[in-house]
Write a structure and sequence with these properties.
- The protein is an all-alpha fold.
- The protein has one domain.
- The longest helix is centred in the middle third of the chain and has 27 residues.
- The chain is flat.
Length: 107
C-alpha cells in the first residue's frame, strides 16, 4: 500500500533542497537521473532503427521529454493528484508521441 505522505518518486522528490551535508546524496541521485535519461535515449535509438519511432524522432530530446513528464507527474502526485488526473496526463502525453502508426486502444 502506498501512503499519501510517501507519494512520488524518490529520485525526484528527495534531496532537492538541503544543506551542504546533502551534497553527496544529491550527486548520487542526480547521477541516477542522468543514467535513466541515457537508458531512454538508447532505447529510443533502437526504436527508431527498428521502425517503432518515426525516422525524424529525436531520441535524446524524447528521453528528456519522458524525464520532464515523469518528474512533473511525480510532483503532481506528491501534491495530491488523483489516479484519474495522472492517467489523463499520460493519455495526453501519448497523443503527442511520434509513432509511425496509430495506437490501438487495448493493444
Amino acid at each position: 500500500m502506498v501512503h499519501p505522505e510517501h507519494a512520488g518518486c524518490m529520485l525526484v522528490t528527495s534531496c532537492l533542497s538541503g544543506g551542504d551535508e546533502s551534497e553527496g546524496a544529491r550527486r548520487v541521485l542526480s547521477d541516477a537521473r542522468r543514467a535513466a535519461v541515457e537508458h531512454w535515449r538508447t532505447r529510443f535509438e533502437r526504436a527508431r532503427q527498428e521502425g517503432e519511432l518515426l525516422p525524424e524522432g529525436e531520441p535524446a530530446a524524447l528521453a528528456h521529454y519522458v524525464r520532464a513528464i515523469s518528474h512533473g507527474m511525480t510532483v503532481h502526485a506528491r501534491g495530491g493528484a488523483t489516479r484519474e488526473e495522472l492517467r489523463r496526463v499520460a493519455e495526453l502525453t501519448m497523443r503527442a508521441w511520434p509513432s509511425p502508426s496509430p495506437r490501438r486502444s487495448g493493444a
